[in-house]
Amino acid sequence: ETGVTQSPTHLIKTRGQQVTLRCSSQSGHNTVSWYQQALGQGPQFIFQYYREEENGRGNFPPRFSGLQFPNYSSELNVNALELDDSALYLCASSESDARDTQYFGPGTRLTVL
Amino acid sequence: QKEVEQNSGPLSVPEGAIASLNCTYSDRGSQSFFWYRQYSGKSPELIMSIYSNGDKEDGRFTAQLNKASQYVSLLIRDSQPSDSATYLCAVNPNAGKSTFGDGTTLTVKP
Fold first, then answer.
1. I need a surface site. Which of A43, A89, A93, B69 has the fewest CB within 10 A?
2. What's the half-sphere exposure (Cβ side, CA atoms, 13 Å) at B60?
3. Would you call B99 an interface residue with chain A, using a CB distance cutoff of 8 Å?
């Protein structure tokens, strides 16, 4: 157990809908990163939040957005869902230093029909 | 060229053998290197981290880093069927913003 939780576990949406995924970071970790993992691929970095501010973004469109709250929880929002958004969404918490280990949550499996 | 490259496999070894997993990366500014194990349908779990050139051993696992060659490897000694999984190499140019390879699938046959 990493101490990082995510909800929901599974989610089915239809194309064009909006979705919010939630993550609760490990206590004391002020950095949360979100990743998208398509089937057969490695996780791809979506963005990172540090002390409630976005701190870097991968190659994802603006319809992917996020929030981080003072209580170590965070959200990933995806608008106008597309079929290709079907993936495992992972959040990972860490301290801010580059050497610090990321601890992954169990993930949310999103299916877009 | 991908930023982090791994042989996709599958890599198959007999029980008790040494499994060797390799990874190359393109960003010379990378500071931290990680190996994760991922079972099907589960999230990645950290096996090893390495920051300096050379070898780092932890139980049956040894990570090797060569920054000049931009190469990192993972050796698994005395492989067990429970080691069968996908192994992900991750590189951190910046804090927490890991770039992952697509993983190598390892099968350990009893």
1. B69
2. 12
3. yes
Does A2 score more than 80 pLDDT? no
CB-based contact, B110 to chain A, within 8 Å: no
- Comparing A92-96, A108-112, B66-70, which segment has the lowest mean pLDDT? A92-96
The pLDDT of A24-44, averaged and rounded, is: 91
pLDDT at B98: 86
Which residues of chain A lie closer than 8 angstroms to B45, CB-CB? 2, 104
Instruction: Decide if B34 touches A, using CB distance below 8 A.
Output: yes
Cα–Cα distance for residue pair B87/B100, rounded to 1 Å: 10
Please tell me the distance from the alpha carbon of residue A89 to that of residue A110, in angstroms, as a whole number. Answer: 7
Nearest to A42 among B31, B92, B101 (CB): B101
